[in-house]
């Protein structure tokens, strides 16, 4: 256990100590957050907050690799970096042009599917992950590799973007993602997955010092897409398909709210929610503060995580 806890503590300290210097650097380079005009007035005050802070979370990868330089750890690192690279392009476009829309969705999706397909091919051919998709305890499908890659790529890209949607309030994604990483740390029999998950928790705890309300820095898509990609691939590697709807419930709720909002507006001209993703709705309709929303969403994430852990232990492995 100490060979995983010590790297996590080191990652926490590195992020916590380096963050003030990185914040100053981003301000100097004017890589700061532009704000969409339709967002509430309290969000307009966040304009100028340093963006692209997900880069600092890369220290977790460095720590992980130094403590476990194995092909499996390199794969986890590359997954994080590739999705983070897509987010970096988006963040850099937003910050350098002060354009809140960033890179087009089509471009990001093309890159995500390209990277995901390549990574899945490597997972199957080199890491030996089987192509079985388990729907329930008793229902599973052993798919041809090409079909498996297509199906799982849809899941990975969809989940990564759902997780990306969750990064909309100060501290929200960090608070919600920590229990998800904790789940994979507990259930995995793979030392690299345990180490990576715990180190990411350490990095996020260090980052939250500066990201909780009022945030001094935002992780941006550089961080949120990287987290989304890594969590999605951890789900694929650990074969926990049956638990994903509950484990990822916050992320999927955020994504579903956007889909329903767009569909409703196109069909009827009316909006279901005051604003999406749904975390904005609770602030605008019910007057919840950012801290309240983050606390509630974090609590739900922990509850769902413990339910999943109980099901995994007593039902799947009882």
From TrEMBL:
Membrane topology classification: Multi-pass membrane protein
Subcellular localization: Cell membrane; Membrane
InterPro entries referenced in this protein's UniProt entry, alphabetically: Glycosyl_transferase_4, PNAcMuramoyl-5peptid_Trfase, PNAcMuramoyl-5peptid_Trfase_CS
Keyword Cell wall biogenesis/degradation: yes
Catalytic activity: UDP-N-acetyl-alpha-D-muramoyl-L-alanyl-gamma-D-glutamyl-meso-2,6-diaminopimeloyl-D-alanyl-D-alanine + di-trans,octa-cis-undecaprenyl phosphate = di-trans,octa-cis-undecaprenyl diphospho-N-acetyl-alpha-D-muramoyl-L-alanyl-D-glutamyl-meso-2,6-diaminopimeloyl-D-alanyl-D-alanine + UMP
Cofactor(s) the protein needs: Mg(2+)
Keywords linked to the UniProt accession: Cell cycle, Cell division, Cell membrane, Cell shape, Cell wall biogenesis/degradation, Magnesium, Membrane, Metal-binding, Peptidoglycan synthesis, Transferase, Transmembrane, Transmembrane helix
Residues annotated as binding Mg(2+): 164, 221
Main subcellular location: membrane
GO molecular function, one term: metal ion binding
EC number in record: 2.7.8.13
Pathway it works in: Cell wall biogenesis; peptidoglycan biosynthesis
Membrane-spanning intervals of the chain: 6-27, 48-66, 72-89, 145-164, 171-187, 193-213, 243-265, 293-312
GO terms, biological process: cell division; cell wall organization; peptidoglycan biosynthetic process; regulation of cell shape
GO cellular component, one term: plasma membrane
Recorded family membership: Belongs to the glycosyltransferase 4 family. MraY subfamily.
Role this protein plays: Catalyzes the initial step of the lipid cycle reactions in the biosynthesis of the cell wall peptidoglycan: transfers peptidoglycan precursor phospho-MurNAc-pentapeptide from UDP-MurNAc-pentapeptide onto the lipid carrier undecaprenyl phosphate, yielding undecaprenyl-pyrophosphoryl-MurNAc-pentapeptide, known as lipid I.
HAMAP family reported in the protein's UniProt record: MraY
Protein's recorded name: Phospho-N-acetylmuramoyl-pentapeptide-transferase
Native source species: [Bacillus] enclensis
């Amino acid at each position: 256990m100490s060979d995983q806890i010590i790297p996590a503590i080191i990652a926490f300290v590195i992020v916590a100590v380096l963050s003030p210097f990185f914040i100053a650097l981003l301000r100097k380079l004017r890589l700061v957050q532009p704000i969409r005009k339709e967002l509430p007035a309290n969000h307009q005050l966040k304009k100028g907050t340093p963006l692209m802070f997900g880069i600092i979370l890369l220290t977790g990868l460095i720590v992980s690799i130094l403590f476990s330089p194995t092909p499996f750890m390199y794969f986890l690192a590359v997954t994080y970096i590739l999705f983070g690279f897509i987010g970096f392009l988006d963040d850099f476009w937003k910050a350098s042009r002060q354009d809140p829309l960033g890179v087009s969705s089509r471009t990001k999706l093309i890159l995500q599917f390209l990277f995901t397909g390549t990574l899945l091919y490597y997972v199957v051919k080199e890491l030996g992950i089987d192509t079985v998709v388990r729907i329930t305890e008793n229902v599973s499908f052993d798919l041809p590799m090409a079909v498996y890659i297509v199906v799982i790529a849809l899941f990975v890209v969809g989940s990564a973007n759902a997780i990306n949607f969750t990064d909309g309030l100060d501290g929200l994604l960090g608070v919600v993602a920590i229990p998800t990483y904790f789940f994979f740390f507990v259930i995995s029999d793979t030392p690299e997955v345990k180490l990576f998950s715990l180190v990411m928790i350490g990095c996020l705890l260090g980052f939250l010092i500066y990201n909780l309300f009022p945030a001094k820095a935002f992780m941006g898509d550089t961080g949120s897409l990287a987290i989304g990609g890594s969590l999605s691939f951890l789900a694929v590697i650990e074969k926990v398909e049956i638990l994903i709807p509950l484990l990822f419930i916050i992320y999927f709720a955020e994504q579903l709210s956007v889909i329903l909002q767009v569909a409703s507006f196109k069909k009827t001209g009316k909006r279901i929610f005051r604003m999406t993703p749904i975390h904005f709705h609770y602030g605008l309709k019910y007057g919840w503060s950012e801290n309240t929303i983050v606390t509630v969403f974090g609590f739900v994430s922990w509850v769902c995580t413990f339910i999943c852990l109980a099901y995994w232990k007593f039902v799947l492995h009882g």
